[in-house]
Amino acid sequence: MKRPDRTFALxxxxxxxxxxxxxxxxxxxxxxxxxxxPGESAATPAQxxxxxxxxxxxxxxxxxxxxxxxxAAFAVQEIDPSPANICAAVAVIEQESxxxxxxxxxxxxxxxxxxxxxxxxxAGVPALVVRTALRLSSSDGRSYAExxxxxxxxxxxxxxxxxxxxxxxxxxxxxxxxxxxxxxxxMQVNVAxxxxxKAHAYPxxxxxxxxxxxxxxxxxxxxxxxxxxxxxxxxxxxxxxxxFNAGQFASRNAAFQLAIGEAxxxxxxxxxxxxxxxxxxHAGSTELAARVxxxxxxxxxxxxxxxxxxxxxxxxxxxxxxRGVFEIAxxxxxxxxxxxxxxxxxxxxxxxxxxxTTAWYANSVRARFDRCLKR
Length: 375
Fold this sequence. Notes:
mainly alpha, 1% strand, 3 domains, 18 helices, two-stranded antiparallel ribbon
């Protein structure tokens, strides 16, 4: 049965861009049927695959394979393969991996060693002890240290970390049973999203865990498209791109934080994090400010917490806290307030080597998206 909440109509500006720039799609050799009209969704699988191939950047190897796997991600999840939706996915893939399933990462050994040293320091393990342990022979005959020095892709490093955790006692202590390679594959999807999304049937026989499927093209595209498009996020794709970096509904949450600040008089950083996931037992700045507003709404601290915990779903929009905060904030401001804003986040992580923000990411993907539409 079609799930209407899984798709969304094109914004007028996007539809106009599609009508202006997208020519009638020619059917690829070997495909039958009538081409889709400009700017409209393809009517048949053959048309959809042809449209995807048409919109891929020049120079992509195995265009038929990318088109087939990307179409399958749309079809299985009942997401409209419109030009705008396709270009959104294409833009993210181009941004994250340049259409390489397991791309080579420059300087990966240095990054790996830095992560190991950071984990060792946190665990209170002397560096000498760590280096000595990593001289042990691994499953392929080389020492773990030699393999770290030779890694070129995230998949190679992930497999190495999994072996360290499973076979070396010190590895378990350093990584606490958790592989530190958390974003994977051609769309760099976070493992945490896959774990939350498991209820949705994955259509392929997994060769290992679903986390490992992210390193494949089919799995990376399936979960990447789900993360990008399989939820309501408004008409402007800029906020989808921001959410792809910061987490689904992050742009909605950031706007809510600004509204809480307006209603309470307490300035907040609009980072999209309503509850401190690292320390959920304690109220963070957003929750404390929300409690101030909640007194005027006759809501308890428990009701505030339960509402904020809906930050990863559409259910937050339906809570008394959300509705009441915006009512007070808009009355104070004397105008309607935005319901989505790009979160203010400074990006951090072992793979990030220069100052970057979620706004930079969203605008970079948006530029690729616009170029795709012009194709």
